[in-house]
């Protein structure tokens, strides 16, 4: 049901940048990856690229909060990646 969805059906470029930057910072400070070993291309160690890969593969357990006036909607990132 889309009645609880505020804003666009997909991640905005601002949400995407925020997610990647925060996750890259976590990875850089030692946070474990949500990717399996076989999902990581050989030699890839850049935290930003790893965060992008996690996002592309839908591996991040994140809720996006969107607010419109008094209404607040928490949306699972997987839903926004699928465009529902």
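^ structure tokens above, recovered residues below v
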């Amino acid at each position: 049901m889309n009645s609880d969805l505020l804003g666009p059906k997909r991640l905005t470029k601002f949400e995407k940048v925020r997610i990647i930057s925060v996750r890259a910072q976590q990875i850089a400070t030692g946070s474990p990856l949500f990717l399996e070993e076989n999902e990581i291309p050989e030699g890839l160690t850049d935290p930003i690229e790893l965060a992008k890969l996690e996002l592309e593969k839908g591996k991040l357990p994140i809720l996006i909060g969107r607010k419109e006036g008094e209404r607040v909607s928490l949306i699972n990132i997987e839903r926004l990646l699928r465009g529902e």
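Helices lie at 13-28, 47-56, 77-82.
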